[in-house]
Specification:
By secondary structure, this protein is α+β, with helices and mostly antiparallel strands. The chain has 2 domains: about 10-75; about 75-169, Roll (PH-domain like). It is about 40% helix and about 30% strand. It contains 4 helices and 9 strands, in the order E-H-H-E-E-E-E-H-E-E-E-E-H. It has helices spanning about 15-40, 50-75, 115-120, 160-169; strands spanning about 5-10, 75-80, 85-90, 100, 105-110, 125, 130-135, 140-145, 150-155. It has a 5-stranded mixed beta sheet. Strand 8 and strand 9 (about 150-155) form a beta hairpin. The longest helix has 27 residues, at about 15-40. The protein starts with a strand and ends with a helix. About 15% of the residues are buried.
Length: about 170
């Protein structure tokens, strides 16, 4: 094998349950408010906003909810490793692959890390140990660059990645 490729996405059920539950609750609350205030003619809440404000808020929260769903549905962390170096992209935040040549890498190792404690969670994160690009789990490729920076690229294929890296040496 001359190339290691991995594409990861946010497919954890708890993330989706959380996003959908919160979005549905917010949409439902504002939907009830619209019905009460516009259809029944009753003020929604102790200090009701204007009808136009309520409509605007309902539409805005619904669009934000849909946008959040689309963001998580299309987000992908792609990694390509070969004899030339490492390329990674966290779409849609990075449209182009970022390339790191082996000449720029002091050391690399497949590690187990603590995503929340060390980086504050998943996604594109900045922590005490540098930058992290991760989607799920606690395994990653830790890169120590010659310029002193550190980059962690998450992986779900830690054993395959470690085996592949030994074939490059």
């Amino acid at each position: 094998m001359t190339t290691f490729k991995e594409t990861q996405k946010f497919d954890q059920p708890l993330i989706w349950i959380g996003i959908i539950a919160i979005g549905m609750i917010i949409t439902f609350v504002f939907g009830v408010g619209l019905y009460k205030q516009l259809i029944q003619g009753l003020p929604f809440g102790n200090n009701p906003m204007s009808d136009n404000g309520l409509i605007f808020t309902f539409v805005l929260t619904t669009l934000l909810f849909i946008g959040l769903i689309l963001l998580f549905a299309f987000a992908r962390l792609s990694t390509i490793i070969d004899k030339n170096g490492i390329e990674y992209r966290f779409f849609p935040f990075q449209c182009q692959y970022r390339k790191i040549s082996w000449n720029d890498i002091e050391k690399q190792e497949v590690i187990t890390y603590k995503p929340i404690r060390e980086y504050g969670g998943w996604g594109i994160r900045f922590g005490k140990k540098g930058k992290a690009f991760n989607v799920a789990g606690d395994k990653g490729l830790q890169l120590y660059l010659k310029n002193g920076k550190q980059i962690l690229i998450g992986t779900q294929k830690d054993v395959d990645l470690a085996d592949f890296l030994t074939t490059l040496k």
